[in-house]
Specification:
Helices cover about 45% and strands about 15% of the residues. By secondary structure, it is an alpha/beta fold. It comes from Pedobacter africanus.
Length: about 325
């Protein structure tokens, strides 16, 4: 059966972007405001991601920010997209998310990633002697599941709070590696196609072909994260998206800056190489008016058959960002 947008759950990935002229405190205030609006507009879940040593991303203490957003909302699911598990001991994450689930029952998601969420020097500062912890990612996911299980109550090491709580675990991926793990464990799979689209189709094929039903999930479930910049006209959306282009130009060149205001002509800013590299990373980006976004997202859904779409939006003005998510909600709610 063909999947249609109006039958597809839609969600938010908030990268807690710090914009030029503002501070992380402003970011957290705007994130809470966006989450409240997103809840009103019918978004399914609201995720934040762990990053470190990036001046434009304020969600390094991810569990703390999740608590802030959960406290500002009432019904929407709030979670991590994701926690970079090799940066932490599974016990600490079990306790943190057990605390969040105890405070906000039935609303917390735990998405887990294998990458460090930063550069190698910072990863060393975070992990120390555990620098190669990514190699233990599958075993650490199993440890985390054990800490959440009621059967762990006889263990010498217990997660309090956390033990016996039903906290959905997701496996995140930006390549094919985690697709095998998500399939083997029978867990939902979220792919970072908003910045790493190259192996997206291959990864979700691997996941679906190898999926083993579990107590957590009977059939494969794929969430795709994409960039969406919507506005009342195509022209305005194409202007707003230049903030995203500038952000990725900084990633390509290694010259990262706070999120910059939109410009009228990107050709005055980047060269051909920078544009080509950024465009490859941003292949899953949808820009335009409601009609344009609707057509292109339906085509994406037809091609991928994903079960849920999650949108992230690097937009300079908070009011324009709110409007973009409002338009996107209208796209999903209309036949």
């Amino acid at each position: 059966m063909k999947k249609l947008l109006h039958n597809t759950p839609f969600s938010v990935l908030d990268l807690a972007t710090v914009i030029e002229g503002k501070t992380p405190a402003d970011t957290f205030k705007n994130s809470a405001d966006l989450a409240q609006h997103a809840e009103k507009w019918g978004y399914n879940r609201y995720w934040l991601a762990e990053h470190h040593n990036m001046i434009s991303v304020a969600s390094s203490a991810t569990a703390v920010v999740i608590g802030h957003i959960a406290a500002a909302t009432k019904t929407m699911r709030i979670g991590s997209g994701g926690i970079m598990l090799p940066n932490h001991s599974p016990l600490i994450i079990a306790e943190q998310f057990g605390t969040l689930e105890s405070l906000f029952p039935g609303r917390i998601d735990l998405g887990l990633g294998r990458a460090p969420g930063t550069d190698q020097v910072t990863a060393m500062a975070i992990r120390g002697e555990r620098f190669s912890a990514a190699n233990n990612f599958p075993q650490d996911v199993l440890k985390l599941q054990a800490y959440f299980s009621a059967e762990n109550n006889n263990s010498s090491v217990r997660a309090i709070p956390g033990e016996g709580l039903d906290i959905p675990i997701w496996i995140l991926g930006s390549s094919t590696d985690s697709a095998h793990l998500a399939a083997a464990l029978g867990l939902p799979y979220a792919f970072a196609s908003h910045f790493a689209p190259a192996q997206f189709m291959t990864a979700i094929h691997i996941y679906r072909q190898n999926f083993k039903p579990s107590d957590h999930l009977k059939e494969p479930y794929v969430l795709a994260c994409v960039n969406v910049v919507a506005a009342d006209t195509d022209a305005e959306a194409n202007r707003l998206v230049t903030s995203l282009y500038q952000l990725f130009m900084g990633i390509v060149t290694g010259r990262r800056r706070l999120l910059q205001p939109p410009v009228d002509n990107m050709n005055e800013i980047w060269d051909v190489y920078e544009e080509e590299q950024a465009s490859q990373m941003l292949a899953c980006t949808f820009v335009g008016s409601k009609a344009t976004i609707k057509q292109e997202l339906q085509q994406f859904l037809d091609k991928t058959g994903v079960d849920e779409l999650m949108a992230t939006a690097h937009i300079f003005e908070h009011s324009a960002r709110l409007r973009s998510y409002e338009i996107l909600a209208e796209v999903f709610k209309t036949d």
